[in-house]
Amino acid sequence: MNTTTAQGTRANSATRVAFQGERGAFSEEAALRLLGEGIALVPRPTFESLFAAVGEGAADFALAPVENTLAGSVQRSYDLLLEGALHIVAEVIIPVRHCLVGCRGSSLDSIRTVESHPVALAQCERFFAAHARLRRVTADDTAGSVAEIVRRADPTRAAIAGRRAAEFYGGVILREGVEDDRENYTRFVLLAPVPEVREGADKLSLVMTLPDGLGALCAALAPFARRRVDLLKIESRPVKAEPWSYHIFLDLRASLLEADTAEALAELRERAASVRVLGCYPSARANEAEGLARLKD
Amino acid sequence: MNTTTAQGTRANSATRVAFQGERGAFSEEAALRLLGEGIALVPRPTFESLFAAVGEGAADFALAPVENTLAGSVQRSYDLLLEGALHIVAEVIIPVRHCLVGCRGSSLDSIRTVESHPVALAQCERFFAAHARLRRVTADDTAGSVAEIVRRADPTRAAIAGRRAAEFYGGVILREGVEDDRENYTRFVLLAPVPEVREGADKLSLVMTLPDGLGALCAALAPFARRRVDLLKIESRPVKAEPWSYHIFLDLRASLLEADTAEALAELRERAASVRVLGCYPSARANEAEGLARLKD
Prior knowledge:
The structure is a homodimer.
Chain A: E1 16-20, H1 26-35, E2 40-44, H2 47-52, E3 61-68, E4 72-73, H3 75-83, E5 87-95, E6 99-102, E7 113-116, H4 118-122, H5 125-130, E8 135-138, H6 142-152, E9 157-161, H7 163-169, E10 172-176, E11 185-192, E12 203-209, H8 217-226, E13 231-238, E14 246-252, H9 259-271, E15 274-281, H10 284-287
Parallel strand pairs in A: 1-2, 1-3, 7-8, 7-9
Antiparallel strand pairs in A: 3-4, 3-11, 5-11, 6-9, 6-10, 12-14, 12-15, 13-14
Helix pairs in contact in A: 8-9
């Protein structure tokens, strides 16, 4: 952690950043990594309340997880991006390392149950296979599980969560790196009420619908492909009022500061039924000193 | 329900079909709609055990949900399709209608809590807004919730589930159609240990990876677009060992019984890093007498 900002985003003690989860969550770590320790953290219990936080005046920005390299897209975030009017102004990627956390006085021998978010438990299959006597208990989130086991002070109960949660609540780390796969990263986007294209912006996110279901996808991608603009990710979500129709989300290696991108977008608008630019921002790779992000292009 | 088969799939009393969930689940309804009442139903508690059922000899087919028109793709099914070696041989679409189900002696006035799968609860927001005194309780599945409230016989507890679950466990339907959105359908695929392209097959499902991340997607789609083959759905799932790389799943309006499709596939194989055909089968639309499916193309 440091107090400088990772993305050039202005952050000071007045900057309030909403995240989903309890204090100590991976989302909190992502907010601090992106914006520095000086920010005011605004924990929100649900994704709905996270996305509503800026509009309600409770926060200046919202930081939402959009993708994990093992679990895939966070579908709820995509739907709420679509339903709301927030703009992506930055992104950040953090590694997810799971720790087995007990209360003071606990040990690997004393514990009998391990609680956490079901995705976190599922990412530690090998650990559970090697310790077959441990019973898994699902909980709402990782950091909240640590808060609970520390509060209960029962040496038979442990949680799986990040190091930050263990330190925040005063839990004891019994084992670090219990995840099966080290290639475990989560990508978050920073959402603001007004669009802003910062210097260094090299990634463009948009969402579109196509006139005839998905038949026109190839035509819609062509304006970018012809200009050698790389497509980094494609995601589809249902159009709720129209079964078997889809909103198509694209992440492209492109900047709105370049004329080529504006031309490709103009062509796309002629071919698509609707196009909405979600944001143009510096990709996490460009600022990732730790070399954690290995975006392919 | 009827005893004829909806998809021409041979079904008799020896045909064992695995589904995920408890007896009375929406998946069970889908199995019966597709294969008729004569089949032997094999309920499996988890998606993992569902996909393993055929290989273990516990079932002849597995029926897996892949998509809901409100909730979107069932990510776990896509991952397990990829990890396993099963083949899609048919599909079926069922409408999802939620009922409020109580035990005998209960009424809309007597209930205080309503339990169900979180997705089902989330699909009934308007009902809960109109009955603000009702507390929502999340459970593992819809049918299991009904089993539990009938067993407890507590008139303050109700569940949300389909009519079939209410009837199976002897619950009382207190209100039918409590979902917010009637355009609520779930699509399932029937999985078999060997591929089979039946007469009338008009839908092709495949999964591919591309050489340079997603940059080559437009080129990969072109062989189909040029032949006016409609793309019905695209879904991406992470390649677990390679962060920011994706498996791309395509559903196309195409038949392996036609030469055009074989040519397009051959071209695709030259452009993609890997291509695996998941199955070629009659689309649910073609056999949907009830007009429930409104597939766009």
